Amino acid sequence: MMVVRRKKGSKIKTYILFILIVVIGFTIIENKKFQKRLNEIYLQNQLLGVNIKRTKVDNIFLITENGSYTLYFVTSNEKEKRIEGLKNIGEISLSTPILIQKDKYGYVDKYGEIIIPLEYEKATNFKFGIASVKKNKYGVIDEEGNVLLPFEYEEMYIGEKRKVIFKKDGKYYISNLKSAKEIDVDKILQLDCGKLLFKKDKEFGIIDFSGEILKVNKNPYILKKFE
Predict the structure, then answer these.
(1) CA 190 to CA 51: how far, in whole Å?
(2) What's the rounded Cα separation, in Å, for the pair 59 and 73?
(3) Which pTM was predicted?
(4) Cβ–Cβ contacts within 10 Å for residue 160, how many?
(5) Which of 11, 43, 61, 123 could form a disulfide with 133 if both were Cys (CB 3.0 to 4.6 A apart)?
(6) Cβ(157)–Cβ(166) below 8 Å
(7) Is 177 left (phi over 0), alpha (psi -120 to 50) or beta?
(8) Which residues are CB-neighbours of 99 under 8 A, at least 6 positions away?
(9) What is the rounded distance in angstroms from the CA atom of residue 107 to the CA atom of residue 72?
(10) CA distance 71 to 86
(11) What's the CA gap between 206 and 210, in Å, rounded?
């Protein structure tokens, strides 16, 4: 009886392994076909003189024409979609919704479907699952468009680990989206590197999203940035 059971178990394992090999083989073949199709689309557009570029996401191309942008989406089920007349495009990533702007800002998924309506005056890329958006004033939303902080802030900066710094009623605060504490500074600017530059009286420096002052200095040229 023990021998029979072992044989049955061995046959089941062999069958499962065979199924896995077939599925993996089919996936590889289909992926190669899809990549070939993407290459053909790219080359055909180039031959037609279209200013087309590849992005970090295989199935999304970026086309530039007459000062505006088009996102060109290609899916493995033979569907294609274009979003034309874009003024601005955020980071193109598989892991987060893609920021786009026509007259207003909103977000699409990797298939070109609008998942958060184009209804914001300003918006940022998603970072740690949240983004800063503006409707008259700034607020914070998650990747489903749920409002995490209401639209009542004059400025908003998104940091690591879902930390934010915002300005309300002329004062700055640091928040973890649940509670907030005041920061004693006069003005904050976000630099291209993501660091926050602060001004307090006649001094300036770098502050992080925990509210810790990393550097303090005095420089008339830097202080002019706050005027």
Answers:
(1) 32
(2) 6
(3) 0.82
(4) 11
(5) 123
(6) yes
(7) left
(8) 88, 89, 90, 91, 105, 106, 107, 123, 124, 125, 126, 131
(9) 15
(10) 8
(11) 12
Tokens representing 110 are 């990797």
**Could you tell me what percent of the chain has a pLDDT over 70?**
87
**What is residue 36's three-state secondary structure?**
helix
b/e per residue, 115-141, with b = 16+ CB within 10 A? Answer: ebeeebeebbbbbeebbbbbeebbbbb
Residue found under tokens 């298939």: 111
Residue type, 177: L
Query: From its phi and psi, is residue 226 left (phi > 0), alpha (psi between -120 and 50) or beta?
Result: alpha
- 8 Å CB contact between 140 and 133: yes
Question: In the numeric block, which tokens belong to residue 174?
Answer: 């640091």
Give residue 139's identity as a one-letter amino acid code.
G
31, 111, 156 from 77: Cα distances, Å: 12, 11, 40
Average pLDDT over residues 79-100: 95
- The chain-wide mean pLDDT, for the chain, equals 87
Beta strands in the chain (DSSP E): 52-54, 60-65, 68-74, 80-86, 88-89, 98-101, 105-108, 114-120, 122-123, 130-135, 137-142, 147-153, 155-158, 164-168, 171-175, 180-183, 187-190, 196-200, 203-207, 213-217
Least confident of 72-76, 175-179, 193-197, 223-227: 223-227
Give residues with Cβ within 8 angstroms of 141, minimum separation 6: 116, 130, 131, 133, 147, 148
